[in-house]
Amino acid sequence: MERLMAIILAAGEGKRMKSKKTKILHEICGKPMVEWVYQCVKNSGVDEIVLVIGRNGEEVKEYMGNKVSYAKQEQQLGTGHAVIQAQEYLENREGQVVIMYGDMPLVTSNTISLAVDYHKEKGNAATIITADFENPAGYGRIIRNSQNEVVEIVEDRDASCEQKKIKEINSGIYCFDISALRDALKELDNKNDQGEYYLTDTIKILINKGLKVGAVKIEDREELAGINDRIQLAEAAKVLRKRILNKIMASGVTIIDPDSTYIDSEVEIGMDTIIYPSTIIKGETKIGEECIIGPGSTIENSKIGNRVEIKNSVVLESCIDDETKTGPFAYLRPGSNVGKNVKIGDFVEIKNSSIGDGTKISHLTYVGDAEVGKKVNLGCGVVVVNYDGQKKHKTIIGDNSFVGCNVNLVSPVEVKKNSYIAAGSTITDEVPENSLAIARSRQVIKENWVLKKGLLKKD
């Protein structure tokens, strides 16, 4: 049975990144670049993927897990040598194998599918993805004969003056017949100035055998960019970010200023939502319809309902239900679940708490490890004192309760439903249902105290 395989070459050390992290694990728009390459080939219909890793490949294995098979290239002896390390996966298989690099996150699955389809249609032993570059310096050149057939790939350093003028370059992405590649690898040698095994030499071997080699030239040269340093990483991020935002806008979302908006690839946003400038939406966030998000908001791995407003606020690993207004300058920390038609106002911080429908927490309040019921009002400056220095404790506030300004709720404590707490109280004991709790000292006035102390200030 024929198979479509892929070998991703990812053993390079990436020294120009100047990082302790393996190059292909550097993130772009929420995913490591190797994940972009993996999804590209996976979405093109590939059955099996082999990842060639280097000496420091354990962190790559830890991230990729069992999604791929692995081959290890202990020594960096060229691209052909890297493919040879994966040769065991080519044995006793028929079909096609796509070979590409793990640091090319801009390649699309459409381009891979186009090359594979062309390869099969023409009956090629190998097909190369190429493009015309205005400045092809550093790239291998595609040499064609008078019939426009590919006859050779010449590396830039080996090219003659005439060959250097050729603009069609080798992208380093190939589709091979598995059996043809398997045989060509057996004849590969390192008799060159670098002492390395070049994958491009397999093209020459196949042509010398009289086998057919073709090329698919693509128009979008951006797809073929490799990432070698932080500058190129940022440039690739711009391209991917534009693709993501264009897709979101095409689905019915308004993005006021795409240049200042950062949205990860896995984010889902409903129709008629408006995203204002300087907003960052990360991870697997899902946002409903007719929402207003931003300006200046950050949302990460959260679920947002319909007709929600989030202004100048941070929402992390939390859920906000329909028609709730958040911000400006609110902070929802992980584990927060906010109900419908809730108001979370300015400088309110919520952590690991549930907030019932219709509740209002208008400003300058901290709610941590708490269960707040429906239609509760928390006044300005309310603090849930959830930490005793060793453990976190829970506070429960029942439905329809009113908590006045500058109240401390010392956990663990429960305020039953329909209760009132007077402003300035420190609550340490349960407040019964339908009660008013007052926990503050009686006001004392000492007349003329300022004069007796000699503290009166002259005008």
Instruction: Tell me the structural class.
Output: alpha/beta
| Beginning-to-end CA distance, first to last residue | 99 Å
Report on the biggest sheet: 11 strands, parallel
The total count of strands amounts to 41
Major β-sheet strand ordering: 12-15-18-21-24-27-30-33-36-39-41
Pfam family, one: GMPPB_C
Subunit structure: Homotrimer.
InterPro entries: Bifunctional_GlmU, GlmU-like, GlmU_C_LbH, GMPPB_C, Hexapep, NTP_transferase_dom, Nucleotide-diphossugar_trans, Trimer_LpxA-like_sf
Cofactor: Mg(2+)
Question: Which helices and strands appear, and what pairs or packs with what?
Answer:
Layout: E1 2-10, E2 27-28, E3 31-32, H1 33-43, E4 48-53, H2 58-64, E5 69-72, H3 79-85, E6 94-101, H4 109-122, E7 126-132, E8 141-144, E9 150-154, H5 161-164, E10 168-177, H6 178-187, H7 200-208, E11 213-217, H8 230-250, E12 254-255, E13 262-263, E14 268-269, E15 274-275, E16 280-282, E17 286-287, E18 292-293, E19 298-300, E20 303-304, E21 309-310, E22 314-316, E23 319-320, E24 325-326, E25 331-332, E26 337-338, E27 343-346, E28 349-351, E29 354-355, E30 360-363, E31 366-368, E32 370-372, E33 377-378, E34 383-385, E35 395-397, E36 402-403, E37 408-410, E38 413-415, E39 420-421, E40 426-427, E41 436-437, H9 449-453
Parallel strand pairs: 1-4, 1-6, 4-5, 7-11, 12-15, 13-16, 14-17, 15-18, 16-19, 17-20, 18-21, 19-22, 20-23, 21-24, 22-25, 23-26, 24-27, 25-28, 26-29, 27-30, 28-31, 29-32, 30-33, 32-35, 33-36, 34-37, 35-38, 36-39, 37-40, 39-41
Antiparallel strand pairs: 2-3, 6-10, 7-10, 8-9
Helix pairs in contact: 6-7
